[in-house]
């Protein structure tokens, strides 16, 4: 795996992005030249394509906007097929059954490498490569490259170092958004003392717990350790891992800190966690989640982002606050004209702007006009990702093989779910993580 994936953005960049410096969030690239939007006309009339992705609900609706724009542009028909939580498992089954989709969105960078080495995905044409080179920072090109060949177009990215909060709960308790872990722990206690459950933790979705761990670990252990652990160059039994687990236990270890207690958190899904904070009958004050939370707030509740629902950077544990992000890459499982044209379209600013207008989405495409995003918070988050350039910190669990970092009910997801249930099991959790990582990396 490439070492240049993992560099922590310094705290000033993240804080500046979330303080909504509106003057800096102006329009995008003024170049009106061809940025790789597809051939146009009705060149694909009668062509049927299938794109598989994990997205449903608001995210699925956003992707359908993109595909509808492609259909209008080319005359093709594109079916969006949900993969369920484990995209890699879904695709493996389809491939082995001889019925893969034309294109799939892979949420784990490690899976791109796995699939490329098995010849399950196809390299991109020179034309698509040119579109990627024109519209993406080098780091995003590297993320989609395996053994010198470009396979992936990163269509969606995200800022996972955010905590969303209900403004009224903070106002009633007389607290302000914290900047460090000590302040965060104090805020949790103050909210609890005021009679408000502090957190909705979506333990039913194991990936949310990996985000908690990565944010703590990136800030506490530092970038070098993060790099080493992401490539399994150090063991998960390293003292730095245990220290991060102990830090999480400071908040996770008290059942009254989370909606439904430890048992309730075990089954709470991310959408449910968001609505439990911002819905009509709120049950908690905060939820840690990526920028896409804004779409759930807008689609599932009556709360308004920026007024009822606000956000602060994940609190720093060490010297610098973290910025952990992720991305979903489009890859081709079938090499045909339709697939290549759709890949070229997905690499264009035009396609990304379609979803950006709907909200709940950030594109790593540097030529997307920031005015496409519907509110200041989303514009600031998008700008933070673009401004990070080659200094983007990729989600650690997505860098591992899916068997460890991306499979429901096993690997890191399951180990951290068990740890949420029993936060005193630091040594056992670390040993289990190491055993699972070792097995997955073979």
How is this structure best described in words?
The protein is α/β, with parallel strands linked by helices and 442 residues long. The chain folds into two domains: 26-159 and 325-396, D-Maltodextrin-Binding Protein, domain 2, CATH 3.40.190.10; 162-322 and 409-441, D-Maltodextrin-Binding Protein, domain 2. 48% of the residues lie in helices and 12% in strands. The protein is built from 21 helices and eleven strands. It has helices spanning 11-18, 57-74, 87-96, 109-117, 126-135, 138-143, 167-173, 181-193, 206-221, 223-230, 239-252, 261-267, 270-278, 293-300, 337-346, 349-358, 376-388, 396-399, 402-405, 411-421, 426-441, and strands at residues 48-53, 77-82, 103-106, 145-146, 149-150, 153-159, 162-166, 286-288, 309-313, 324-332, 393-394. The strands form three sheets. Strands 1, 2, 3, 6, 10 and 11 form a six-stranded mixed beta sheet that branches. Strands 8-7-9 form a three-stranded antiparallel beta sheet. The longest helix has 18 residues, at 57-74. It is globular, with a radius of gyration of 21 Å. The two termini are 14 Å apart.
């Amino acid at each position: 795996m490439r070492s240049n994936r993992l560099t922590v953005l310094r705290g000033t960049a993240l804080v500046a992005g979330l303080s909504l410096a509106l003057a800096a969030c102006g329009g995008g690239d003024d170049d009106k030249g061809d940025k790789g939007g597809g051939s146009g006309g009705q060149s694909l009339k009668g062509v049927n394509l299938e794109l598989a992705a994990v997205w449903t609900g608001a995210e699925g609706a956003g992707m359908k906007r993109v595909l509808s724009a492609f259909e209008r542009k080319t005359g093709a028909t594109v079916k969006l097929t949900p993969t369920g939580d484990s995209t890699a498992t879904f695709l493996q089954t389809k491939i082995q059954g001889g019925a893969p989709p034309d294109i799939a969105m892979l949420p784990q960078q490690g899976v791109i490498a796995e699939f490329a080495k098995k010849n399950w995905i196809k390299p991109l044409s020179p034309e698509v490569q040119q579109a990627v080179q024109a519209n993406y920072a080098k780091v995003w090109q590297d993320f989609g490259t395996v053994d010198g060949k470009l396979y992936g177009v990163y269509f969606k990215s995200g800022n996972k170092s955010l905590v969303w909060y209900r403004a009224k709960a903070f106002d009633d308790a007389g607290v302000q958004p914290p900047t460090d872990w000590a302040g965060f722990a104090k805020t949790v206690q103050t909210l609890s003392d005021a009679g408000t459950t502090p957190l909705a933790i979506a333990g039913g979705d194991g990936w949310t717990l990996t985000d908690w761990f990565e944010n703590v670990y990136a800030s506490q252990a530092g970038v070098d350790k993060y790099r080493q652990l992401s490539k399994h160059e150090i063991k998960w039994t390293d003292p730095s891992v245990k220290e991060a687990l102990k830090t999480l236990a400071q908040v996770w270890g008290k059942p009254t800190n989370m909606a439904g207690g430890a048992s309730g958190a075990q089954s709470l899904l991310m959408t449910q966690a968001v609505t439990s904070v911002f819905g009509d009958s709120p049950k908690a004050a905060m939820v840690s989640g990526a920028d896409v939370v804004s779409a759930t707030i807008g689609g599932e509740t009556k709360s308004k982002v920026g007024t009822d629902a606000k956000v602060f950077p994940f609190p720093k544990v060490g010297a610098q606050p973290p910025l952990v992000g992720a991305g979903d890459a489009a890859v081709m499982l079938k090499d045909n004209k339709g697939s290549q044209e759709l890949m070229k379209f997905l690499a264009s600013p035009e396609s990304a702007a379609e979803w950006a207008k709907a909200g709940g989405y950030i594109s790593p495409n540097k030529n997307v006009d920031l005015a496409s995003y519907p509110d200041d918070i989303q514009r600031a988050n998008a700008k933070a990702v673009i401004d990070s350039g080659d200094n983007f910190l990729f989600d650690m669990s997505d860098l591992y093989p899916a068997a460890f970092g991306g499979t429901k009910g096993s690997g890191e997801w399951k180990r951290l779910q068990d740890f949420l249930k029993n936060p005193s099991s630091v040594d056992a959790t670390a040993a289990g993580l190491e055993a699972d990582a070792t097995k997955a990396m073979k």
